[in-house]
Design goal:
The complex is a heterodimer of chains A (324) and B (80).
Chain A (H helix, E strand, L loop, with lengths): L1 E6 L4 E4 L19 H10 L8 E5 L4 E4 L3 E9 L2 E3 L2 E3 L5 E3 L4 E4 L4 E9 L33 E3 L25 E7 L8 H9 L2 E3 L7 E5 L21 E6 L4 E3 L7 E3 L6 E4 L1 E5 L4 H4 L7 E6 L2 H21 L2
Parallel strand pairs in A: 12-20
Antiparallel strand pairs in A: 1-4, 1-11, 2-3, 3-10, 4-9, 5-8, 5-10, 6-7, 6-9, 12-19, 13-14, 13-20, 14-17, 15-18, 16-17, 16-19
Chain B lengths: L2 E5 L4 E4 L21 E7 L2 E6 L5 E5 L5 E3 L4 E6 L1
Antiparallel strand pairs in B: 1-7, 2-3, 2-6, 3-4, 5-7
The chains are: A alpha+beta (324), B mainly beta (80).
Chain lengths: 324, 80
Protein backbone atom coordinates (compact mmCIF):
# COMPACT_ATOMS: atom_id res chain seq x y z
CA UNK A 1 0.00 0.00 0.00
CA UNK A 2 1.31 3.43 -0.87
CA UNK A 3 0.07 6.99 -0.92
CA UNK A 4 1.02 9.08 -3.92
CA UNK A 5 1.79 12.74 -3.38
CA UNK A 6 -0.04 14.80 -6.03
CA UNK A 7 0.87 18.07 -4.34
CA UNK A 8 2.96 18.33 -1.18
CA UNK A 9 1.48 21.62 0.08
CA UNK A 10 3.87 24.19 1.50
CA UNK A 11 6.01 22.03 3.78
CA UNK A 12 4.77 18.57 4.69
CA UNK A 13 6.94 16.04 6.47
CA UNK A 14 6.74 12.62 8.09
CA UNK A 15 6.72 13.02 11.88
CA UNK A 16 6.07 10.87 14.93
CA UNK A 17 6.51 11.71 18.62
CA UNK A 18 10.19 12.47 18.15
CA UNK A 19 13.75 11.32 18.61
CA UNK A 20 14.74 12.01 22.22
CA UNK A 21 18.13 10.99 23.58
CA UNK A 22 20.50 12.61 21.09
CA UNK A 23 20.12 16.32 21.84
CA UNK A 24 23.45 16.32 23.70
CA UNK A 25 25.03 15.27 20.40
CA UNK A 26 23.35 18.13 18.55
CA UNK A 27 20.55 16.02 17.06
CA UNK A 28 17.22 17.62 17.93
CA UNK A 29 14.17 15.85 19.31
CA UNK A 30 12.15 16.53 16.12
CA UNK A 31 8.68 14.98 15.90
CA UNK A 32 5.27 16.64 15.67
CA UNK A 33 5.11 20.29 16.81
CA UNK A 34 1.64 19.50 18.25
CA UNK A 35 2.11 16.06 19.72
CA UNK A 36 -1.37 15.96 21.25
CA UNK A 37 -2.91 16.29 17.79
CA UNK A 38 -0.52 13.66 16.39
CA UNK A 39 -1.46 11.22 19.17
CA UNK A 40 -5.18 11.85 18.62
CA UNK A 41 -4.88 11.23 14.87
CA UNK A 42 -3.05 7.95 15.48
CA UNK A 43 -5.54 6.74 18.10
CA UNK A 44 -8.45 7.46 15.75
CA UNK A 45 -7.05 5.14 13.07
CA UNK A 46 -6.09 2.40 15.53
CA UNK A 47 -2.34 3.09 15.46
CA UNK A 48 0.09 3.19 18.33
CA UNK A 49 0.43 6.83 19.44
CA UNK A 50 4.05 6.69 18.32
CA UNK A 51 3.24 5.77 14.70
CA UNK A 52 4.43 8.14 11.99
CA UNK A 53 2.00 10.44 10.18
CA UNK A 54 2.25 13.63 8.17
CA UNK A 55 2.58 17.15 9.52
CA UNK A 56 1.54 19.88 7.07
CA UNK A 57 1.99 23.54 7.89
CA UNK A 58 -0.46 26.26 6.65
CA UNK A 59 -1.31 24.45 3.38
CA UNK A 60 -2.59 20.88 3.12
CA UNK A 61 -1.18 18.33 0.66
CA UNK A 62 -3.09 16.49 -2.04
CA UNK A 63 -2.71 12.72 -1.67
CA UNK A 64 -3.99 9.82 -3.79
CA UNK A 65 -4.65 6.45 -2.12
CA UNK A 66 -3.73 3.29 -4.06
CA UNK A 67 -5.82 1.09 -1.75
CA UNK A 68 -8.64 1.41 0.76
CA UNK A 69 -7.45 3.12 3.94
CA UNK A 70 -8.61 4.67 7.20
CA UNK A 71 -7.34 8.17 7.89
CA UNK A 72 -7.82 10.97 10.40
CA UNK A 73 -6.89 14.65 10.30
CA UNK A 74 -6.39 16.62 13.53
CA UNK A 75 -4.73 19.83 14.69
CA UNK A 76 -5.45 23.08 12.87
CA UNK A 77 -8.89 23.91 11.43
CA UNK A 78 -8.53 23.21 7.73
CA UNK A 79 -11.49 21.70 5.87
CA UNK A 80 -10.75 18.08 4.85
CA UNK A 81 -11.98 16.87 1.45
CA UNK A 82 -12.16 13.35 0.01
CA UNK A 83 -12.77 13.50 -3.73
CA UNK A 84 -13.83 17.11 -3.24
CA UNK A 85 -16.43 16.40 -0.54
CA UNK A 86 -16.00 18.07 2.83
CA UNK A 87 -15.37 15.66 5.72
CA UNK A 88 -15.12 16.23 9.47
CA UNK A 89 -11.80 16.74 11.21
CA UNK A 90 -10.78 14.78 14.36
CA UNK A 91 -12.69 11.78 12.94
CA UNK A 92 -11.76 8.36 11.52
CA UNK A 93 -12.54 8.60 7.80
CA UNK A 94 -12.62 5.69 5.33
CA UNK A 95 -10.91 6.35 1.99
CA UNK A 96 -11.49 4.11 -1.01
CA UNK A 97 -8.79 3.02 -3.44
CA UNK A 98 -8.30 5.74 -6.05
CA UNK A 99 -9.74 8.55 -3.93
CA UNK A 100 -7.91 11.82 -3.35
CA UNK A 101 -7.49 13.61 -0.04
CA UNK A 102 -7.18 17.40 -0.27
CA UNK A 103 -7.80 20.48 1.84
CA UNK A 104 -9.34 23.95 1.74
CA UNK A 105 -7.71 27.07 3.17
CA UNK A 106 -6.59 27.05 6.77
CA UNK A 107 -9.07 28.84 9.03
CA UNK A 108 -7.44 28.57 12.49
CA UNK A 109 -4.26 27.10 13.92
CA UNK A 110 -1.21 26.33 11.81
CA UNK A 111 -0.49 22.59 11.44
CA UNK A 112 -2.62 19.59 10.54
CA UNK A 113 -1.72 15.99 11.34
CA UNK A 114 -2.71 13.23 8.95
CA UNK A 115 -2.64 9.69 10.32
CA UNK A 116 -3.18 6.60 8.18
CA UNK A 117 -4.06 3.21 9.67
CA UNK A 118 -0.77 1.30 9.71
CA UNK A 119 1.33 4.47 9.88
CA UNK A 120 3.74 5.91 7.33
CA UNK A 121 6.28 3.08 7.16
CA UNK A 122 9.56 4.83 6.40
CA UNK A 123 12.75 3.38 7.95
CA UNK A 124 13.42 4.13 11.61
CA UNK A 125 16.48 6.38 12.09
CA UNK A 126 17.93 6.68 15.62
CA UNK A 127 14.70 5.39 17.12
CA UNK A 128 12.26 7.58 15.18
CA UNK A 129 10.66 8.08 11.77
CA UNK A 130 10.58 11.87 12.24
CA UNK A 131 12.10 14.01 9.52
CA UNK A 132 14.98 16.33 10.40
CA UNK A 133 15.55 17.96 6.99
CA UNK A 134 18.67 19.96 7.90
CA UNK A 135 20.41 16.74 8.93
CA UNK A 136 18.81 14.74 6.08
CA UNK A 137 17.77 12.33 8.82
CA UNK A 138 14.66 10.15 9.11
CA UNK A 139 11.35 10.67 7.37
CA UNK A 140 10.94 10.10 3.63
CA UNK A 141 14.54 10.20 2.31
CA UNK A 142 15.46 12.72 5.00
CA UNK A 143 13.41 15.52 3.48
CA UNK A 144 9.94 17.06 3.21
CA UNK A 145 7.64 15.14 0.89
CA UNK A 146 7.54 16.17 -2.79
CA UNK A 147 5.27 15.72 -5.79
CA UNK A 148 5.19 12.11 -7.10
CA UNK A 149 6.65 10.61 -3.91
CA UNK A 150 5.08 7.28 -2.98
CA UNK A 151 4.78 7.03 0.78
CA UNK A 152 4.81 3.45 2.14
CA UNK A 153 2.07 2.55 4.62
CA UNK A 154 2.35 -0.19 7.25
CA UNK A 155 -0.17 -2.88 8.14
CA UNK A 156 -3.33 -1.52 9.82
CA UNK A 157 -4.22 -2.87 13.27
CA UNK A 158 -7.89 -3.19 12.32
CA UNK A 159 -8.88 -1.42 15.56
CA UNK A 160 -10.10 1.79 13.90
CA UNK A 161 -13.83 2.51 14.05
CA UNK A 162 -15.01 4.33 10.94
CA UNK A 163 -16.77 7.61 11.70
CA UNK A 164 -15.67 7.79 15.33
CA UNK A 165 -14.55 11.27 16.40
CA UNK A 166 -12.68 12.86 19.27
CA UNK A 167 -15.25 14.30 21.75
CA UNK A 168 -15.52 18.11 21.44
CA UNK A 169 -14.07 18.83 24.89
CA UNK A 170 -10.94 16.87 23.94
CA UNK A 171 -10.29 18.81 20.72
CA UNK A 172 -7.91 21.49 21.80
CA UNK A 173 -8.90 25.00 20.79
CA UNK A 174 -6.50 27.54 19.34
CA UNK A 175 -7.25 30.63 21.45
CA UNK A 176 -6.14 34.10 20.28
CA UNK A 177 -4.33 35.85 21.85
CA UNK A 178 -2.41 32.83 23.02
CA UNK A 179 -0.91 32.74 26.49
CA UNK A 180 2.31 30.80 26.93
CA UNK A 181 3.47 29.97 30.44
CA UNK A 182 7.15 30.43 31.15
CA UNK A 183 9.28 29.31 34.07
CA UNK A 184 11.98 32.02 34.40
CA UNK A 185 15.65 31.03 34.43
CA UNK A 186 18.47 30.18 34.22
CA UNK A 187 19.74 33.58 33.04
CA UNK A 188 16.83 35.91 33.84
CA UNK A 189 19.13 37.62 36.39
CA UNK A 190 20.89 39.22 33.41
CA UNK A 191 17.84 41.47 32.85
CA UNK A 192 16.72 44.35 35.12
CA UNK A 193 13.66 43.65 37.24
CA UNK A 194 11.63 46.38 35.49
CA UNK A 195 12.57 44.98 32.09
CA UNK A 196 11.68 41.42 33.11
CA UNK A 197 8.28 42.57 34.44
CA UNK A 198 7.62 44.41 31.16
CA UNK A 199 8.53 41.30 29.14
CA UNK A 200 5.70 39.44 30.90
CA UNK A 201 3.25 42.38 30.69
CA UNK A 202 3.51 43.29 27.03
CA UNK A 203 1.79 41.81 24.01
CA UNK A 204 4.06 40.14 21.45
CA UNK A 205 3.32 38.89 17.96
CA UNK A 206 4.51 35.74 16.18
CA UNK A 207 7.07 36.72 13.52
CA UNK A 208 6.82 35.27 9.99
CA UNK A 209 10.22 33.58 10.41
CA UNK A 210 8.76 31.19 13.04
CA UNK A 211 9.38 27.55 12.05
CA UNK A 212 10.10 24.08 13.45
CA UNK A 213 13.48 25.22 14.82
CA UNK A 214 12.23 28.20 16.71
CA UNK A 215 9.26 30.49 17.13
CA UNK A 216 10.30 34.12 16.96
CA UNK A 217 8.20 36.91 18.44
CA UNK A 218 8.36 40.67 18.02
CA UNK A 219 6.54 43.81 19.03
CA UNK A 220 7.66 44.14 22.65
CA UNK A 221 10.17 46.57 24.16
CA UNK A 222 13.88 45.61 23.91
CA UNK A 223 15.25 44.18 27.15
CA UNK A 224 17.50 46.16 29.49
CA UNK A 225 20.42 44.18 30.82
CA UNK A 226 22.15 44.50 34.16
CA UNK A 227 25.64 45.82 33.53
CA UNK A 228 28.52 43.45 33.93
CA UNK A 229 31.96 42.82 32.56
CA UNK A 230 31.36 40.01 30.05
CA UNK A 231 33.10 36.83 31.25
CA UNK A 232 35.85 35.17 29.21
CA UNK A 233 34.24 33.12 26.45
CA UNK A 234 31.08 35.23 26.18
CA UNK A 235 30.61 37.61 23.26
CA UNK A 236 30.50 41.36 23.74
CA UNK A 237 26.73 41.74 23.27
CA UNK A 238 24.98 41.88 26.68
CA UNK A 239 22.65 39.06 25.54
CA UNK A 240 25.68 36.76 25.15
CA UNK A 241 26.71 34.18 27.72
CA UNK A 242 29.48 31.62 27.87
CA UNK A 243 28.09 28.85 25.64
CA UNK A 244 25.49 26.69 27.32
CA UNK A 245 23.02 23.91 26.62
CA UNK A 246 19.68 25.10 25.19
CA UNK A 247 16.71 23.14 26.56
CA UNK A 248 13.72 22.36 24.31
CA UNK A 249 11.30 25.22 25.00
CA UNK A 250 13.94 27.66 26.18
CA UNK A 251 13.42 31.32 25.30
CA UNK A 252 16.50 33.14 24.05
CA UNK A 253 16.48 36.84 23.21
CA UNK A 254 19.39 37.62 20.87
CA UNK A 255 20.38 41.27 21.22
CA UNK A 256 17.55 41.64 23.75
CA UNK A 257 15.03 42.37 20.99
CA UNK A 258 13.13 39.36 19.63
CA UNK A 259 12.45 36.32 21.83
CA UNK A 260 12.84 32.92 20.15
CA UNK A 261 11.28 29.80 21.67
CA UNK A 262 13.29 26.75 20.62
CA UNK A 263 11.08 23.95 19.31
CA UNK A 264 11.34 20.40 17.94
CA UNK A 265 14.16 20.97 15.37
CA UNK A 266 16.18 23.39 17.52
CA UNK A 267 19.93 23.67 17.94
CA UNK A 268 21.10 22.21 21.25
CA UNK A 269 23.47 24.88 22.49
CA UNK A 270 24.99 28.29 21.98
CA UNK A 271 25.83 31.64 23.46
CA UNK A 272 22.53 33.49 23.94
CA UNK A 273 21.12 34.01 27.42
CA UNK A 274 17.75 32.40 28.11
CA UNK A 275 15.10 34.37 29.96
CA UNK A 276 13.12 31.21 30.79
CA UNK A 277 11.59 28.03 29.40
CA UNK A 278 8.06 27.47 28.11
CA UNK A 279 6.44 24.76 30.25
CA UNK A 280 5.97 21.36 28.62
CA UNK A 281 2.14 21.65 28.82
CA UNK A 282 2.18 24.64 26.44
CA UNK A 283 4.66 23.48 23.80
CA UNK A 284 1.95 21.96 21.58
CA UNK A 285 0.11 25.31 21.50
CA UNK A 286 3.11 26.94 19.83
CA UNK A 287 2.88 24.51 16.92
CA UNK A 288 -0.57 25.95 16.15
CA UNK A 289 0.46 29.62 16.01
CA UNK A 290 0.23 31.45 12.70
CA UNK A 291 2.53 34.39 12.06
CA UNK A 292 1.10 37.71 13.33
CA UNK A 293 -0.83 35.95 16.14
CA UNK A 294 -0.81 38.06 19.31
CA UNK A 295 0.78 36.30 22.28
CA UNK A 296 1.49 36.90 25.94
CA UNK A 297 4.05 35.28 28.16
CA UNK A 298 2.91 34.45 31.69
CA UNK A 299 5.40 33.83 34.48
CA UNK A 300 4.74 30.64 36.47
CA UNK A 301 6.42 28.78 39.32
CA UNK A 302 7.73 25.22 39.17
CA UNK A 303 4.66 24.07 41.17
CA UNK A 304 2.31 25.67 38.64
CA UNK A 305 4.29 24.14 35.77
CA UNK A 306 4.00 20.67 37.31
CA UNK A 307 0.26 21.14 37.95
CA UNK A 308 -0.20 22.10 34.31
CA UNK A 309 1.78 19.01 33.28
CA UNK A 310 -0.51 16.79 35.39
CA UNK A 311 -3.60 18.45 33.91
CA UNK A 312 -2.24 17.85 30.42
CA UNK A 313 -1.47 14.19 31.21
CA UNK A 314 -5.00 13.77 32.59
CA UNK A 315 -6.47 15.20 29.37
CA UNK A 316 -4.38 12.75 27.35
CA UNK A 317 -5.67 9.90 29.53
CA UNK A 318 -9.25 11.00 28.87
CA UNK A 319 -8.47 11.03 25.14
CA UNK A 320 -7.06 7.48 25.33
CA UNK A 321 -10.14 6.27 27.23
CA UNK A 322 -12.49 7.97 24.76
CA UNK A 323 -10.80 6.23 21.82
CA UNK A 324 -10.19 2.80 23.38
CA UNK B 1 -21.28 41.76 -12.59
CA UNK B 2 -20.08 40.10 -9.40
CA UNK B 3 -16.81 40.31 -7.50
CA UNK B 4 -14.53 37.38 -6.76
CA UNK B 5 -12.10 37.41 -3.87
CA UNK B 6 -8.47 36.38 -4.13
CA UNK B 7 -7.48 34.92 -0.76
CA UNK B 8 -4.14 34.30 0.91
CA UNK B 9 -3.37 30.56 0.92
CA UNK B 10 -1.04 31.00 3.90
CA UNK B 11 -0.19 33.54 6.60
CA UNK B 12 2.88 35.78 6.56
CA UNK B 13 3.93 39.09 5.02
CA UNK B 14 2.28 40.08 1.74
CA UNK B 15 4.31 41.75 -1.00
CA UNK B 16 2.91 43.25 -4.17
CA UNK B 17 6.27 43.35 -5.98
CA UNK B 18 8.67 40.53 -6.98
CA UNK B 19 11.57 42.57 -5.53
CA UNK B 20 11.85 45.95 -3.78
CA UNK B 21 12.94 47.73 -6.98
CA UNK B 22 10.45 46.07 -9.34
CA UNK B 23 7.04 47.37 -10.36
CA UNK B 24 4.05 45.62 -8.72
CA UNK B 25 2.71 42.38 -10.21
CA UNK B 26 -0.67 44.10 -10.71
CA UNK B 27 -2.05 47.56 -9.96
CA UNK B 28 -5.66 48.50 -9.19
CA UNK B 29 -7.71 48.42 -12.38
CA UNK B 30 -5.61 45.75 -14.14
CA UNK B 31 -7.23 42.67 -15.61
CA UNK B 32 -6.20 39.32 -14.13
CA UNK B 33 -6.10 35.97 -15.93
CA UNK B 34 -6.45 32.65 -14.10
CA UNK B 35 -2.99 31.66 -12.87
CA UNK B 36 -1.59 35.21 -12.90
CA UNK B 37 0.67 35.98 -9.96
CA UNK B 38 -0.74 38.86 -7.90
CA UNK B 39 1.74 38.89 -5.03
CA UNK B 40 4.19 37.08 -2.78
CA UNK B 41 3.84 35.85 0.78
CA UNK B 42 6.92 35.54 2.95
CA UNK B 43 6.73 32.93 5.67
CA UNK B 44 9.25 30.62 7.37
CA UNK B 45 12.12 32.43 5.61
CA UNK B 46 10.87 31.74 2.08
CA UNK B 47 8.68 33.48 -0.51
CA UNK B 48 5.60 31.92 -2.12
CA UNK B 49 3.72 33.22 -5.13
CA UNK B 50 0.00 33.92 -4.81
CA UNK B 51 -1.91 33.26 -8.03
CA UNK B 52 -5.48 34.06 -9.03
CA UNK B 53 -7.56 30.87 -9.23
CA UNK B 54 -9.83 32.46 -11.82
CA UNK B 55 -9.59 35.45 -14.13
CA UNK B 56 -11.46 38.76 -14.02
CA UNK B 57 -11.37 42.47 -14.66
CA UNK B 58 -10.36 45.53 -12.72
CA UNK B 59 -8.50 44.13 -9.72
CA UNK B 60 -8.71 46.05 -6.45
CA UNK B 61 -6.16 45.31 -3.72
CA UNK B 62 -7.22 45.36 -0.07
CA UNK B 63 -3.67 45.04 1.29
CA UNK B 64 -0.64 47.30 0.99
CA UNK B 65 2.87 46.11 0.20
CA UNK B 66 4.51 44.47 3.27
CA UNK B 67 1.22 44.15 5.21
CA UNK B 68 0.78 41.22 7.59
CA UNK B 69 -1.68 38.64 6.25
CA UNK B 70 -3.52 35.71 7.82
CA UNK B 71 -4.41 32.47 6.00
CA UNK B 72 -7.66 32.87 4.08
CA UNK B 73 -7.65 36.69 4.32
CA UNK B 74 -8.90 38.51 1.21
CA UNK B 75 -5.96 40.07 -0.66
CA UNK B 76 -7.81 41.49 -3.65
CA UNK B 77 -11.11 41.45 -5.50
CA UNK B 78 -11.78 41.13 -9.23
CA UNK B 79 -14.91 41.60 -11.31
CA UNK B 80 -16.19 38.61 -13.23
Amino acid sequence: MAIKVLNPGLLTSVQDLGRPGYFHLGIPVSGAMDRYAMRAANLLVGNEESAAGLEAVFVGPQLAFAEDAMIAVTGADMPVKIDGEIQPGWTALPVKAGQVLSFDFLTAGARIYIAVAGGIDVPVALGSRSTYPIGALGGFKGRAIARDDELPVGRPSGRAISGRGVPDDLRRENPVPVELRILPGLYDHRVTKASLDRFFDEEWKVAPEADRMGYRFRGGTPLEFNEREQPFGAGSDPSNIVDSCYPYGSVQVPGGTEPIILHRDAVSGGGYFMIGTVISADMDLIGQLQPNTPARFRRVTMEQALEARHARAAMLDRLRKALQ
Amino acid sequence: MSRVEIRAPMPGVFYRKPSPDSPPFKVDGDDVAAGDVVGLIEVMKSFHEVSALEGGKSVRFLLEDADAVMAGQVIAEIEV
